[in-house]
Automatic annotation (TrEMBL):
Keywords: Cell membrane, Membrane, Transmembrane, Transmembrane helix. PANTHER family: LIPOTEICHOIC ACID SYNTHASE, PHOSPHOGLYCEROL TRANSFERASE I. This is Sulfatase N-terminal domain-containing protein. Signal peptide: none annotated. SUPFAM superfamilies: Alkaline phosphatase-like. CDD domains: LTA_synthase. Residues 182-464 form the Sulfatase N-terminal domain. Gene3D superfamilies: Alkaline Phosphatase, subunit A. InterPro entries: Alkaline_phosphatase_core_sf, OpgB/LTA_synthase_biosynth, Sulfatase_N. The chain crosses the membrane at residues 31-46, 58-79, 107-124, 136-153. It is found in: Cell membrane. The keyword Cell division does not apply.
Length: 516
């Protein structure tokens, strides 16, 4: 019996190895040391053959925190490092229309790790009377060690921070008299962070996007802060000048979550609409993914189209996220040409899916026309997105459709877990942003900033006068004064975001005056 207990204790400890390796990024030497340590500890634990077991002890207190830890690690292994706010947000708004890529080997190892912990625990429950004390102790340790525990505590009970609320500035709603209203095309390039240019074969991977940036303004130093690290958060941050603060799990009697979105603030399409712009959003994915439709309905978009509007046209040539980038870009080119024939200025927003982790979705066009060379599948998908973006801009320019028009290209967020995550993490990870077109001279601005600083930057590119360069909680990249990232540092800004209550309340629960 003693030997069985030693074997059980060994598997109990070794089952944690997979989770520890992934979460703390243990190397090979550390793994070997942990493995040897598990053997030594299992040999040193004092056991006896006492069979006087309390048969009435039925509960396994450690099961619940074990399930919570497994759930946390499951999310971590699929998405990599993630915001707790993203979890709350998607619980609230749903994930209709989306499906993460799950690597089967990770699921297998996660299940084996769970069983490798659970089965020894059940064995000890039956064969060691000390377990009645040890089980609750292990349950407490598992609960306290779970990052979810501290995230939940901090979200609901942590000290409030007024930094975001005190720094929020309402954007002006009208352009100055005499400003020529320029059209604007905004392309959200899924996961195409600039760090891909730095890793091995980065020059080839990012060649097209680097070429696009060389023709206009490029900002280098855009960091990802809390509550900006997923698709909807990336959209909102750059369009509204705020981070996507989740409502939380408990909202009282507020049942309007799928009918309104950020009703307390004005975003870019609101301002443009108030100035006579026609606003349109073309989306290759589903309308209802993560509350996208609620946002579009709440912020003065004249027209929105999604995968369902085009699926009969494209037939079987789709991914499970929606339209491939070559299809989307072809549709966008035609639509922009139509919009240029109208008499009033327009703002056209669109979002690609080609760079989505963990493997990407390169198009048939790229496979036929773009050499992959030594690039991995993920790198080739990033290159493919850049190829289609560059090609579309060239076509628009050749047709004369970039006159009095600004084109903005930026990724929505840093790429989530993928085969290059470890290599990317060795560099200063940056988001990608470039703006080109009428009146924009080629230049590179290097400064630390957050994605919400893009909101005032875009407004100034369009000719808006912003007091001190401020709009939302952002500050224009052109303004010489320090932005919040430079004032607080990355860690300080993350802390202010996660401890915010007041700006969150304003965004979700206040009602802004209707624009005329």
């Amino acid at each position: 019996m003693i030997e069985k207990k030693r074997i059980a204790s060994f598997f109990l400890m070794i089952s944690l190895l997979y989770l520890l390796r992934k979460y703390f990024d243990l190397g090979n030497i550390e793994t070997v040391l942990y493995f040897v340590g598990a053997i030594i500890v299992s040999r040193l634990i004092p056991f006896n053959n006492d069979k006087n077991i309390n048969k009435r002890y039925y509960l396994l207190w450690s099961l619940i925190p074990l399930l919570l830890m497994t759930a946390y690690m499951g999310i971590f292994l699929i998405f990599g490092d993630f915001d707790f706010g993203a979890v709350l947000y998607h619980i609230d708004m749903g994930v209709d229309g989306g499906r993460p890529t799950v690597q089967g080997n990770r699921v297998v190892f996660l299940v084996l790790s769970f069983l490798g912990f659970l089965i020894p625990m059940l064995f000890f429950k039956k064969h060691d009377r000390r377990f009645k004390v040890i089980d609750p102790l292990i349950a407490i340790i598992l609960l306290v060690c779970n990052p979810f525990f501290w995230s939940v505590y901090d979200f609901y009970y942590g000290k409030k921070d007024l930094t975001l609320f005190e720094n929020y500035v309402e954007p002006p709603l009208q352009f100055p008299n005499g400003v020529t209203k320029k059209n604007i095309v905004i392309i959200y390039a899924e996961s195409t962070e600039r760090t891909f240019a730095e890793i091995e074969h980065g020059e080839q991977t990012f060649a097209e996007l680097s070429q696009v940036a060389s023709t206009g303004l490029e900002v280098q130093g855009l960091r990802q802060v809390a509550n900006t690290g997923w698709t909807m958060a990336g959209f909102m941050t750059s369009q509204c000048g705020v981070t996507l603060q989740p409502r939380g799990l408990y909202r009282g009697n507020n049942y309007s979550r799928h009918k309104d979105f950020f009703t307390g603030i004005y975003c870019l399409p609101d301002i443009l609409s108030a100035n006579g712009y026609y606003t349109e959003y073309m989306n290759g994915g589903g309308r209802n993914f993560a509350g996208l439709g609620a946002y579009l309905d709440s912020h003065h978009f004249n027209r929105t189209t999604h995968f369902d509007d085009y699926k009969d046209l494209v037939g079987d040539y789709t991914s499970y996220w929606g339209l491939y980038d070559d299809t989307l870009m072809e549709l966008a080119e035609k639509r922009i040409e139509e919009l240029h024939q109208q008499k009033h200025p327009f703002a056209f927003f669109m979002a690609t899916i080609g760079g989505h982790a963990s493997t990407g979705f390169p198009t048939q066009t790229c496979k036929a026309n773009v050499p992959q060379g030594n690039l991995s599948g993920m790198q080739f998908a990033i290159k493919c997105s850049g190829y289609h973006i560059q090609k579309t801009i060239e076509i628009l320019r050749e047709k004369g459709l970039l006159e009095n028009t600004i084109v903005v290209v930026h990724n929505d967020h840093l790429i989530m877990d993928n085969p290059h995550s470890d290599e990317l993490n060795t560099f200063y990870r940056m988001n990608y942003f470039t703006a080109l077109g009428d009146g924009i001279e080629p230049q590179v601005i290097k400064r630390e900033a957050a994605m919400f600083d893009l909101f005032p930057t875009i407004l100034e590119l369009l000719g808006m006068n912003l007091p001190d360069g401020r709009a939302g909680i952002g500050r224009s990249i052109f303004n010489p004064n320090k932005n919040m990232m430079e004032e607080l540092g990355h860690g300080g800004l993350d802390a202010a975001i996660t401890k915010d209550r007041s700006l969150r309340e304003k965004m979700w629960n206040e009602k802004r005056p209707e624009l005329k």
